[in-house]
Amino acid sequence: MPNRTKKPEDVGPAAVESLFALMKLHEEWSVRRPRDFRWWAHRHCQEVSAGPAVRSEGIVICRLQARTAVVRDVPLSDRLDLLLATLNAQAALNALVLDRAERRVFLSSHMVLHRETLDWGLSLFGSAVATQAVEAVLLA
User: Fold this and answer.
1) Tens of each residue's pLDDT in the chain, 140 residues
2) What DSSP line would sit under 33-88, residue for residue?
3) Angstrom distance (rounded) from CA 69 to CA 132
4) Contacts by 72-80 with C-beta closer than 8 Å and gap 24+?
């Protein structure tokens, strides 16, 4: 009979803490909570967060997200959609995402982790987070 008293392992808070340490961020330029942090890279605020832990096919998973605003108050148009699609065709770790309601363009990256993928997954996602911070400055 399975042990039902054992809580599922939620890697979200540990992943967020590890990413903050990996990035060598300073407290004075950041705001931290258990499942997310924000920090200011030059003129851009980057948000890194861990969604709630969920069970998928018997494995407890957690979705990580990093996003950085690149442009605000963009005029919505078919040309903008085409430009973002063209730029995203070359994307590797981060994609440009248009939030139509806010009229803002973000660089965005997501990754799903669980206990068995935490080590190598954090290394890969950390690369995406660091690249995103630099890329946002260049694209803006």
Assistant:
1) 454 544 448 999 999 999 999 999 988 889 999 999 999 877 889 999 999 999 999 999 999 999 999 999 999 999 999 999 999 999 889 999 999 999 999 999 999 999 999 999 999 999 999 999 999 988 87
2) ETTEEEEEETTEEEEEEE---EEETTEEEEEEEEEEEEEESPPP-HHHHHHHHHHH
3) 10
4) 72/102, 72/103, 72/104, 73/103, 73/104, 74/98, 74/103, 74/104, 74/105, 75/103, 76/100, 76/103
As a residue count, the chain comes to 140
Q: What predicted TM-score, i.e. pTM, was given to this entire model?
A: 0.86
DSSP code of residue 101: T
Distance CA 133, CA 54 (A): 28
